[in-house]
Structures are given as C-alpha cells and as structure tokens.
Amino acid sequence: MRSHDLGVRGEELASRHLLSKGYTILERNWRFQKAEIDILATKDDTLAVVEVKTRSSIAFGDPEEFIDRNKIQLLKRAANAYVNMNRLNLDVRFDYIGIVIERNRHKISHLKDACFIF
Predict the structure, then answer these.
(1) Mean pLDDT for all residues in the chain
(2) At 85, phi and psi to the nearest 5?
(3) DSSP readout, 4-52?
(4) CA distance linking residue 11 with residue 29, whole number of Å
(5) Rounded to two decimals, what is the model's pTM?
C-alpha cells in the first residue's frame, strides 16, 4: 500500500473509532497556514484536536515517534485559529491516534491529552 493510501486508510479508521466512542467529527484534514489537523471532533464539552499516524509496521518505531515539537506547535496554532474562527466555547484537548496496519489487520491506540507526553 502506498504511503498516501495508508494515511488515508488510517484517518478513516481513526474517524470510525472516534464515532464508535460517541464523538462528533467536525472536520477532517483542516488546514491553517502550514498546519493540517487530521481530525477535529467533539465529545461532551471538549474539542479533540487529533493527530493520526499510520504505519504498516513498527519495525522503524511506533507511530507516535514521528511527531516532533515543531508539529505540536503548528497544531496548537491551528487549533487556536479554529476555535477563534468558529467562536467555540469548548475545552480543547490534543489527542493522538496511532494505527498499525499489518496483513489486513489493524491496531488502534488512542491517547487523550497526548500532546504533552512528547
């Protein structure tokens, strides 16, 4: 599977995962300046800013190892812009969803408030 196709498949799986947990998807692949937020979703009174990383193997490391401080700063700026543009009055949380797809199977890990562990 090509890298782009793998990423699209991962974001679809992540969206389904969030929907199954009671989230409402507001946006996918929302862009602001140099940043792209993979998924913006709400549950209760919280906006989840979700970064999705998909890999076909963990041979070169877990998916979350590919998120750096620069990416986190871009996500924070984009999330602030989204909240301001849409005049949202919600708590904001940064989540990470890692997906490994191997041999037509997938494993999903969803870390809430994950931004601060990197």
Answers:
(1) 86
(2) -65, -35
(3) HHHHHHHHHHHHHHHHHTT-EEEEEEEEETTEEEEEEEEETTEEEEEEE
(4) 9
(5) 0.87
**CB 100 within 8 Å of CB 57:** yes
What are the residue boundaries of the structural domains of the chain, listed by start? Answer: 3-117
For residues 14 and 114, the answer to whether their CB atoms sit within 8 Å is no
CB atoms within 10 A of CB 89: 8
Q: For residue 68, give Cα distances in angstroms to 44, 101, 104, 106.
A: 29, 22, 28, 24
Q: Is 93 helix (H, G, I), strand (E, B) or coil?
A: strand
**Which CATH architecture is the domain 3-117 placed in?**
3-Layer(aba) Sandwich (3.40)
Per residue in 78-109, pLDDT (tens digit) is 999 999 999 999 999 999 999 988 878 889 98
Angle at 112 between CA 75 and CA 37, to 5 degrees: 25
